[in-house]
């Protein structure tokens, strides 16, 4: 792993430690497994660890029949609302980093994004729920390695282009199902 990748994966861990500094662990910890679909995670599966109203998560995503792989490291902060079925507040903010690897016919591209979203959980039971969130991703960096001779232009990342100016911001949305292990 390069230094930049290691740095990006440690930021959510540091943020989580800051949120939880000075808090005693008193039976509020929970582990959730999740599965979902969305952009940019595509079809994904993940694991989240919760302490009080903060969760840290790691998920892996892919798109069938296309050689795209994503890895997402996120921090969720549950800040508003009440639920009859959970002590966790249903409204949350989510931030984190996404690594996106796209293997094409002529190249392998890697992108690093900052993810910012707002969302809500809908508890079906004490253990099962659905989450829906939306926001934006911001391209932090990208690189492309050509595997064969190619004379075209890479065009940069998957950002929005208007009049030759790149706006490396894309919408993001996700729909998922989670299960509380305990």
Describe the fold and architecture.
- There is one protein chain.
- The longest helix has 18 residues, at 3-20.
- The chain has an 8-stranded antiparallel barrel with strand order 1-2-3-4-5-6-7-10. A two-stranded antiparallel ribbon has the order 8-9.
- It has one helix at 3-20, and strands at 30-39, 42-51, 54-63, 66-80, 91-103, 107-123, 128-146, 160-162, 165-167, 169-180.
- β2 and β3 form a beta hairpin.
- Helix content is 10%, strand content 62%.
- The chain has 182 residues and is mainly beta.
**Order of helical and strand elements:** HEEEEEEEEEE
The first-to-last residue Cα distance is: 33 Å
**Gyration radius from CA atoms, angstroms:** 18 Å
| Main pleated sheet | 8 strands, antiparallel, barrel
Mean of pLDDT: 81
User: Low-confidence stretches at least 5 residues in length (pLDDT < 50)?
Assistant: 17-28
Structural class: mainly beta
Key descriptive features of the protein:
182 residues, mainly beta, eight-stranded antiparallel beta barrel, two-stranded antiparallel sheet, 10% helix, elongated
Could you give the topology of this structure?
Layout: H1 3-20, E1 30-39, E2 42-51, E3 54-63, E4 66-80, E5 91-103, E6 107-123, E7 128-146, E8 160-162, E9 165-167, E10 169-180
Antiparallel strand pairs: 1-2, 1-10, 2-3, 3-4, 4-5, 5-6, 6-7, 7-10, 8-9
TL;DR?
The chain is mainly β. The protein contains 1 helix and 10 strands; from the N terminus they run αββββββββββ.
């Amino acid at each position: 792993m390069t230094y930049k990748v290691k740095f990006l994966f440690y930021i959510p861990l540091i943020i989580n430690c800051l949120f939880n500094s000075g808090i005693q662990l008193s039976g509020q910890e929970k582990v959730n497994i999740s599965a979902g679909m969305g952009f940019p995670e595509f079809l994904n599966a993940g694991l989240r660890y919760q302490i009080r109203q903060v969760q840290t998560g790691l998920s892996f995503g892919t798109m069938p029949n296309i050689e795209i792989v994503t890895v997402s490291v996120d921090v969720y902060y549950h800040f508003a609302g009440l639920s009859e079925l959970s002590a966790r507040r249903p409204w949350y903010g989510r931030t984190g980093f996404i690594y996106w690897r796209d293997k094409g016919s002529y190249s392998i591209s890697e992108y690093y994004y900052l993810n910012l979203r707002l969302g809500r959980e809908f508890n079906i039971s004490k253990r099962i729920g659905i989450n829906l969130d939306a926001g934006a991703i911001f391209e932090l960096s990208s690189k492309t390695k050509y595997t064969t001779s190619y004379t075209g232009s890479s065009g940069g990342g998957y950002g929005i282009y208007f009049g030759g100016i790149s706006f490396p911001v894309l919408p993001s949305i996700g729909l998922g199902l989670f299960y509380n292990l305990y």
